[in-house]
Every structure is written in C-alpha cells, then in structure tokens.
Amino acid sequence: MSNQAVVSLRNVTKSFGAGGVTAVQSIDLDVRPGEFVSLIGPSGCGKSTLLRIVGDLVEPTSGEVVVNGKSARQARLDRDYGIVFQDAVLYDWRTVSKNIALPLELMGVDRESRAARVQELMQLVELEGFDKHHPWQLSGGMQQRVSIARALSFSPALLLMDEPFGALDEMTRERLNMELLRIWAGIGSTILFVTHSISEAVFLSTRVVVMSRRPGRIAAIVDVDLPQPRNADTREEPRFFELVTEVRDRLREGGLDEDRTAPGEGELVSAEETP
Amino acid sequence: MAYAAPAPRHTRLLRSQRTREAAERIGLFLVVLAVLWALWEGFRFVAESTGLRIGQFEANDRTMPHIHDIVGQLFEPSRRNGPLLIDVLWDAALFTAKEAAVGFVLGALFGFGLGVLLAHSGLLQRGFLPYIVASQTIPILAVAPMVVVWVNPRLPDGLKDWGAVAVIAAYLTFFPVTINTMRGLQSVDPRAIDLMRSYASSSWNVLWKVRVPAALPFIFAALKIAAPASVVGAIIGELPASIQDGLGGAILNFNQYYITSPTSLWATNLIAAFLGIAFFLVVLLAEKLVVRRAPEHVA
Predict the structure, then answer these.
(1) Same domain for B96 and B222?
(2) In this complex, do B198 and A85 lie within 8 Å of one another by their Cβ atoms?
(3) Do A65 and A16 sit in the same domain of this protein?
(4) Residues lower than pLDDT 70 in chain B
(5) What is the residue-wise DSSP string for B199-216?
(6) How many domains does chain B have?
(7) pTM of this prediction?
(8) What ipTM describes this predicted complex?
(9) Fewest beta carbons within 10 Å, which of B104, B166, B246, B275?
C-alpha cells in the first residue's frame, strides 16, 4: 500500500535552529491517490511546516519523505505538485492569464498551447473574461481562484494547499469549498489541505489528520465517510455534525482547549454547536 | 458569470480621473511657481524700500535680479553682434545632456549590475557596501580631475573629453541605483520565491521573472534621484576637463562676468535646472510605461 502512496512520510521530524524548537515530531502518514486529506491543529502545531516539507520547500531534520515514489526534492524538480498559499501570491505586474501561464512558461510550453490551457483553466475556476485584468483589480476570492488555476496549470498529480481560504470571508469560503470539490472531482488529483476550520476540514476531506499542539504530532486520523459528491445539504446532515464533534474532541485531547480562539476558529466552531 | 465586472466603464472612469489629476498637477505647479515668484520679488521690494540688510547682504539688481530680467536676458545677444543667449545655452545644454545621458545609462547599468551582485551575496554586501558608501562621501570635485587624468588618455577621438565627463556623471548615478536595486530585489515576498522553487525554476528565471519586476518601483525611485544627479555630475565634470561647450563651461564663463551681467549666470542656472527636470520627466514617463502595479504601489 505504502509504495502506491502519493505522499509517504516516515518518522519525519523538523526542528528549527540550534535551540531546537521542534515544529513537527515523528510524523507517519500515507496519502493515497485521489484522497483529499486535511491537516488540522492549533496554530503553531507545524501543519504548514509539514506541507512545506512535502513540497521540499523546507527540509526535515530527520525522517523520510517520498512523493510520487521519489524523494521530495526530485518530485519538486519534476513539478509533481502545485501549491496554493493562504494569500494568492500573484505577481502584480502580470495579468491574470499571464499569472496562470507562468509555470507553463517556465516549462517551455509554447504560446498557443499556453493560451489554450489558460482558457480551459479560466473556465474551470469561473473567471472567463478576466484574462487581461491585473491581480489588484480582483477581489480576494477571485485572486485565490487565479492562484488555484495557476497551481493546476501543469496538471500536477498532487495539490498542496496551505489554508487557501483562511483569509476570505465565510460566504466566499463556503462557495470556494464547493468549487474546490467540483474541481477535485473533475481532475482526480490528490489534495493535501491545511486548515484552521473544523467544518471546512470535515466538509472537504476524505480523511482529517488531527495534529497536537507543538511539537506537532498526529493525535488522530478521522475518516470522513460522508457520501460523495457533497453539496450544501451535506453541512446539514447529522453525520456531518457527529464528525465535526469527533474532530473537535480529538483536537481537545491534542491540547487545543487552551487555544480555542485561534484565528477563524472560535466563531466557526460555536456556530455549529447549536444546530 | 456571477462577477462580470463592467470592464470598459472601469477604464473610462480611470481615464477621466487621470485627466483631472493631470490638470490638478499642472495647476498646482503654476500656483507654486507664482508663489515663488511673489516671494522673490516681494522680498526684494520690501528690502529695497525699507533699506533692510541682512549682514552684508543687500537686495539689488546684482544680488537678486528681477525674474523678468533673468528671463529677458535669454533673449538678448550673448555678446556684441553674437547669437541670442538662449541659442548659446541651448547648444550648451544639448552638449551637457549628451554627457549626462551617456553617464546616466552607464551609471544605471553599472549600479543595477552591482545591486544584483550584492543582493545575491551577503558576503560581498558586507564586504563592499562600506566602500561603496565611502565613494559617495568624497566630493565629486575631488574625484573629477582624477577621472579625467585616468580615463581621457584611453578614450578614442570621438569620445575624448566628454567621455570622461560621462564617467563622472555615472559616478553620481550608480550609487542610488545600487542601493535601491539591492533593497528591491530583497523585498520580494518569500512565498513568491517558494512558488518559483515549486516550479523548479532556475535562479535566472527567479531573478528576471520575479525579483527584478518586484524591484522595479525601487529601481525607478533611484533613477528619479539619479537622473538630475547625472546632470549635476556632467556640469561639474566639465570644469576639470576644461570643456567649454557645455553648461559647466557656460557657468564658469558667466561667473567671471557676474559683476557686469549677473542675469547671464542666473539664466544659465535656469537652463541647467530645466535640463535636470527634463531628465527627471523622461524617467517618470519610462516608469509609467514600464511599471504595471497597483496604483498605491507607484510613487
């Protein structure tokens, strides 16, 4: 099973600096093809660090990281993953279409194929007609769609998403959650998703990895057996609330209780406590 | 299409707004010009009519010529039966502009290259920056003769003399460009670099597709300082190079005749100022054409 995994982490530990603040400790995790796995945990639990280790943007202090059957470094050099950050991180001096086409440009894809692919992607993220706009002319939600389109431009097998909707208002966030699921169903990529929001994690994922407070360890893995495809009604199902409760309990065991008011968390949790 | 923005209206709005801003700017420029003129003439009038003296300073035609006399001098013959002063100064300004432009380009390219080098190596930065700063604390007047002595003998005939002056202008140009290029290249959002790493991008592409575009507003800020500075460098450089054809030569010349014709020197200074402003405006225009950035990021 593990050699088929898209991401395979074995005993991965990361300490920063000589003083040795340990961000994540002894992480073992396999992500299988087509899965949607969320990492959730209190702020500073190292979930973003873990994502960056998978992307070879941070090197682990010890342990083994295998992505697509190769070392993380080789996977990065082979462009096996696309990444989306909390902020869209678009290049202001490029138009929307040129932002989306940047990875293809770097890969030496010719102009015509690039243009065709950009049109496809603009349709996928529902931004048709905005090719010539500059990023600062778009809303936060639209910018994040551009960022997602850019990550998908070269059809990577793996999508790494670091709190991609964390900076958006809740309505935009829920709409983009739906769109992400639609996109995921369409492309069949594997997604590793970092979030602060319990409901978002449960709604989107096939599995939720609950991490403990620093040093981050895996406190629990919750299988989300909600039926696919998910829609607005999914959030109303009793099973949804059971799973939200379960994830919250696991977080509490992992030491979240001192940190209930982490950004964007408190209001979401309490909003769902009284269905 | 839930978010179809009315794009044409957007740009039309921007355009009318831009026209209004431009008109405002020109209006403001004229108002300030009038205020400066009024202050100059007003001070002179009050000082003359009350006999006010500040130390040795006495306001009169020699120390504070009337502005209309300075402007009028431009349209007087520069010498008996000679061409008008403005024609002489126009030729001199073109000559100095050539030196300053070549110096500006040399200095900007050298400054940019040095900035890129220093931004990529902390060791070089720590090692060289003190000397680069020191180079600017030496007055240009002290450096200019040495540059003339070193550079001039090695120049081909077409570049003789004025080429050395261009190098002096470059000496004043490169410094702000180096400092701001360095700052600009290092100002990039680290995640923008991470993103390029995730695309397995070469450092060359990171430099040209991310770092340099992100640094452009910084670089243009420096070029706006450097452009008038290159004119100053060229004017001062003409003095040790004994060049008579430029504004430096004209300033030196009219300095000697200041007692008999103070307005000639003032008029020459006016033209030198216009040349500096022209250089500045060219850079400003280039910035408007090159830097595509959120409005609040453009100075």
Answers:
(1) yes
(2) no
(3) yes
(4) 1-13, 293-299
(5) TT--HHHIIIIIIHHHHH
(6) 2
(7) 0.81
(8) 0.83
(9) B275
